[in-house]
Design brief:
The structure is a homodimer.
Chain A: H1 19-22, H2 32-38, E1 44-45, H3 46-50, H4 58-70, E2 74-79, E3 85-90, H5 92-96, H6 98-124
Antiparallel strand pairs in A: 1-3, 2-3
Chain A binds a DNA duplex through residues 27-31, 45-47, 55-63, 78, 82-86.
Chain lengths: 127, 127
DNA sequence: GGTGCCGGTTACTTCAACGGAACCGGCTTC
DNA sequence: GAAGCCGGTTCCGTTGAAGTAACCGGCACC
């Protein structure tokens, strides 16, 4: 059994349109996934989203929602009522993100312990 | 068929140990996934990695690899030869990331077109 | 003895995301 | 007429990831 080296990787190993280059596509990496989770069960109002997203400021929430709207993952619907009402909902495309998100969440659930242990071990050993 | 509103989300909707809070776990978001791809087929040397990761600087590559090593996704092996040889390889845990990564890449492949179209449409319409 | 390779390190700068605080118009309620 | 709610905006500061450029020690080669 020969321990063969894998072939060297070419300079164009990643094509210009390679998906791995563009992920994650949705602006704010800190809040986007949480926002999507909050919208999973149906449309939500701006102030309604601020409750579960504890600690988010109006500015950051507005920015995140706008960037997700630009990317076509979220729709903003404004109702001419009083007091004004604005609702945010997932688009069909936004909803398809739930699958890959679940896969990453499962991975984290299974490996977060080992990951934190690895950090402690790294620090304990050589630094 | 009643169009019922979903129940409001509580302030503790995301528990402190919720996986979605901790993803992505691997430091550098720009290069980590590409590095993992490069290591998929076996161990690679530092300078060997710089070829496919076109444009990465030695500093950023070293930082990224170290943070991935801290997280237990990569092992660094130093050989006392001349000229010095250092090899980086995926750990078993690092290898398990390939599944979720594939899911995200598939999503991007399928939706990147729609996403870019949504951006253009957003700009064209209301701004 | 000068040059180059290997695998980095160091110091400095740039940039985008994030956070804090204040403020806004339109409307209602007290 | 004062206060409050809603859905934000504006200005400013902080932080951390990433990029740039220069340099390093040890060894081999010419």
């Amino acid at each position: 059994m020969t321990q063969s080296r894998p072939a060297p990787l070419p300079a164009d190993f990643f094509p210009a349109d390679c998906p791995v280059q563009s992920v994650p596509v949705l602006g704010s990496r800190k809040w986007a996934w949480r926002i999507i989770r909050c919208l999973e069960d149906g449309p939500r109002r701006f102030s309604e989203l601020r409750v579960p997203l504890a600690g988010i400021t109006a500015k950051v929430l507005a920015e995140s929602l706008r960037s997700m709207e630009q990317d076509g993952a979220v729709v903003r619907t404004e109702y001419a009522e009083n007091p004004p009402r604005v609702e945010y909902a997932l688009t069909p495309m936004g909803r398809t993100l739930l699958g890959p998100m679940d896969a990453m969440c499962d991975w984290t659930r299974e490996n977060l312990g080992g990951l934190l242990a690895a950090r402690l071990e790294y620090e304990r050993a050589g630094r």
